[in-house]
Sequence to fold (724 residues):
Amino acid sequence: MLSEHIGNILAILLTLSGLIVSLFHYVAKPCRAWIYCMGFLMGNLLSNYYWGTYTILMGDYPTTSSFMAYLGWDIGYVFLALLVFEIRFEEEKAFFSPISLLPIPIIVPQFLYYLQFGGIFNNIWQNFWCALIACVSVNSMIFYFKNRKNGARKPHVAILSLHFIIMEYIMWTSSCFAWPSEWLYPYTYASYLMTTVFLLISWAISKDLDQPWRRAKGTPVRQSQAVLRPLYILTLAVFSFGGFFLALWMKEEMIAQLGEEDGIVLYPIIALVLFVISIVVIIFTVAVIFIFTYGQRAAESKMLRIEKTNAEHANAAKSDFLANMSHEIRTPINAVLGMNEMILRESLQAREIPREDTLAMNRVLTNISTYSGNIESAGNNLLSIINDILDFSKIEAGKLEIVNDNYRLSTVLNDICIMVGIRAKEKKLSFDTAIDGSLPENLFGDAVRVQQIVTNILNNAVKYTHEGSVRLSVYKNDEATIEAGKNIDIIFEVKDTGIGIRKEDIDKLFDKFERVDLQQNSTVEGTGLGLAITHNLLEMMGGSVSVDSDYGKGSVFTVVIPQQVVSAEPMGDFRNKYRNEQMSAPVLRESFEAPEAVILVVDDTAMNLKVVEGLLKNTKIGLDMASSGAEAIEKASKKSYDIILMDQRMPVMDGTEAMNRIKEETGGPNVGVPFICLTADAVSGAKEKYLSQGFTDYLTKPINRKALEEMLKKYLPQDKIIKA
Ligand code: ADP
Fold:
């Protein structure tokens, strides 16, 4: 009996542990296999607890009803069968080997022996399910052996289930024969070995489902789960021990009250109590599963709903952006084409003006220069839209970099004020500045981005103000100390008397593609990217932006940018400072000439060659033009150049290939010549890509005259450069 007690206790403990592990697996990632596994374990728990506790306590088997004893085990077989069917891999489902029917003839003798002990119904039930489980498991194992070289995975659950059935077979068959002692009774060992299945089954399922044994790292355990887990384990433990002690107490009471003989008559009551306790444990487990998964699903579906709304909103904003973009791009193109048309028309008319009518001629020239000024501004507008998109794509790809260098604050402020001042004047707005002269002049940071951020906020202020004023204040906190090497927060405050922003819209302002108050703003041009870029840039620079607005009256945008102080020297009046600067360093802005230099310009678009020619006209540099890669190779094989400007995207042979072919010509006239890549490809990573292909440097189209001149000055032989 002792060995049997050990087996019984083991069975109860292992089923409980297996059940707890499976339950939490299921809660972490619900799937049908876990439900079947829990059904199997719960069924076994029901019978193991009822049977085990009773035999330990009473030293005998429960006589009440074999139905009650076998009920749980019989349910368990059904769930185990469902599990072995469920856990099969897709390919396995179509596989059948006749060898897998082998368990049937093996199980038949056991059925015949045992018929004399268990009831007939119980026997048929058990043997049917055992045969089914064994056949499916053997089939899975044969499939594995046949396909393991093709990557079939080991069927852990099938192996474990077959082990379970074999142990059952040994147990029940050996129980039909007499054995010399309980320690020589195969039943004992088979029952011990069988109980291991209760513990290992969850491990086997997670192996077959290819899940990590423990909850994936980073999956948050909700607080309710963290509390419920120990509570669940505690309750199960209390129930199990509680049931045992309750039954013990009942037994003692019965014997004390009724005496040994009569007390025994009431033992079935104890059996019934134990059965009820097992049922309560099962119901409790099912309730916990329900609460857990229901809570989890509710939380998940709430999250999904929120994510869906967010995604729908983002999608709508993106669609609006695309529709809006088409409008934004068409407007400046329309201006360019319209103005160009005017130039063409007026220059044709000018031909008919008599020579002596200089007044009329001057009028036409003035008109033409106004039109071309308009073309320039429309072109710049278009470029700034495209630059915004590029910046934004770089931010999204995480490729935008902050490039820090020494700079003068007065220069940045001056550039900003000139640019915004012109726009404000065009809209008849007054533009005032209040700039704290005690701010340090020499700073270390990304001047280009600082200028971009402040200009963007100021341009918005001008754009969204129809009358009144825009005011820029730049200052620092009163308590901030200016010390070389230390950071200082520079505060830019932009105040306007414009249309203002509703309180509920303020949070949306910095989202990508987001434009608010569209009714008011329908005629105002914009992409909805500016503030998103500003916000991202500020985040990268460790700064911040905040908004305060009175709808209908105006807004105040406050930007804080931390910058490093290079020297404590105060800026003073920034306009004076800037002017002095200009006077004392005229050389910096000077243009240059290089009549001795010769460069080769390669581009398949004739217009682009013309643009380069026009831009470099004043430098007197000798220019050779090639309109294809092949022509460039040919020219480069005959003549030595100081620089080759190479367009990247050309038909037949692209710029990289043409460059490589020129470079390959060993001993040719252009060994070591700098190649500058000319391309409209300005997306993130483009520069790195072209440099890695072998280009010396990179210039984007549309070509900026200053950038082109700077580039040439850098790569032309210095002795050929004459300062103008
Ligand atoms: P946009 O290209 O549309 O100007 P932004 O990202 O720069 O895009 O701005 C987002 C939205 O914020 C604008 O469409 C506008 O509705 C609102 N906004 C920005 N600045 C102001 C301002 N100074 N006054 C009123 N509304 C503003």
